[in-house]
Amino acid sequence: DTEVTQTPKHLVMGMTNKKSLKCEQHMGHRAMYWYKQKAKKPPELMFVYSYEKLSINESVPSRFSPECPNSSLLNLHLHALQPEDSALYLCASSQGEGAPYGYTFGSGTRLTVV
Amino acid sequence: QKEVEQDPGPLSVPEGAIVSLNCTYSNSAFQYFMWYRQYSRKGPELLMYTYSSGNKEDGRFTAQVDKSSKYISLFIRDSQPSDSATYLCAMLRGANSKLTFGKGITLSVRP
């Protein structure tokens, strides 16, 4: 299995809703990442988990809350989002933090905040 | 100056053309160089990964790195309409570093 699986593929949520994005990989990768991508822009790093511990938080607002329940799963909990948070949210994994080989992205969750 | 600069697009070529995509970088600490392809509304797909100066070939794709000039390229031979996508160069300094992307270039291959 060489995939990073993200669910849901699409999500529409109101500004008062609470929702979660899920990411799963079974490649034995020990680093997992959340990225945000706006249209016609490259992905921007949000969070890095290394060996299930939060390693990097790129000054992301607290309305985004990551969680790594185990080495295969990564969640992103969303609460009180703003319309400007609408974007493609990408999960990625790699063998180790900053390891280039096999740095794999999922297909993303397209989030719309209304 | 941005750490990674990528040739602006968009780029449109006829089917069968050789495509050259280029990035330059300013930080000599970058050690690993990747090219990602991203189709519309999909996640980036790793195409090529290199870590030394020289060429690396995979089918119709060749990645070239020139560390002395801080310049990387991706060549696509016999381009196909299915190659139409956004191509992103990306670089890593090493372990525990962040992936730094170029802005991306949108390629369109006309049948």
Task: Walk me through this protein's architecture.
The complex is a heterodimer of chains A (114) and B (111). By secondary structure, chain A is mostly beta strands. Chain A contains no helices and eleven strands. In chain A, strands 2, 4, 5, 6, 9, 10 and 11 form a seven-stranded mixed β-sheet that branches. A four-stranded antiparallel β-sheet of chain A has the order 1-3-8-7, with no helix packed on it. In chain A, strand 5 and strand 6 form a beta hairpin. By secondary structure, chain B is an all-beta fold. Chain B contains no helices and eleven strands. At the A-B interface, strand 5 and strand 10 of A face strand 4 and strand 5 of B.
Give the key terms.
heterodimer; A: 114 residues; mainly beta; 7-stranded mixed β-sheet; 4-stranded antiparallel β-sheet; 11 strands; globular; B: 111 residues; 5-stranded antiparallel β-sheet
Task: Lay out the secondary structure.
The complex is a heterodimer of chains A (114) and B (111).
Chain A: E1 4-7, E2 10-13, E3 18-25, E4 31-37, E5 44-50, E6 53-57, E7 64-70, E8 73-79, E9 87-94, E10 104-105, E11 109-113
Parallel strand pairs in A: 2-11
Antiparallel strand pairs in A: 1-3, 3-8, 4-5, 4-9, 5-6, 7-8, 9-10, 9-11
Chain B: E1 4-6, E2 11-14, E3 19-25, E4 32-38, E5 45-50, E6 54-58, E7 61-66, E8 71-76, E9 85-92, E10 100-101, E11 105-110
Parallel strand pairs in B: 2-11
Antiparallel strand pairs in B: 1-3, 3-8, 4-5, 4-9, 6-7, 7-8, 9-10, 9-11
Instruction: Please outline the major beta sheet of chain B.
Output: 6 strands, mixed
Radius of gyration of chain A: 13 Å
**Count of DSSP helices of chain A?**
0
Instruction: Identify the overall geometry of chain B.
Output: globular
Rg of chain B, nearest Å? 13 Å
Give the helix proportion of chain B (percent range): under 10%
SSE class of chain B = mainly beta
Q: Compute the number of strand runs of chain B.
A: 11
Strand content of chain A: over 45%
How big a fraction of the residues of chain B is strand? over 45%
The class by helix and strand makeup of chain A works out as mainly beta
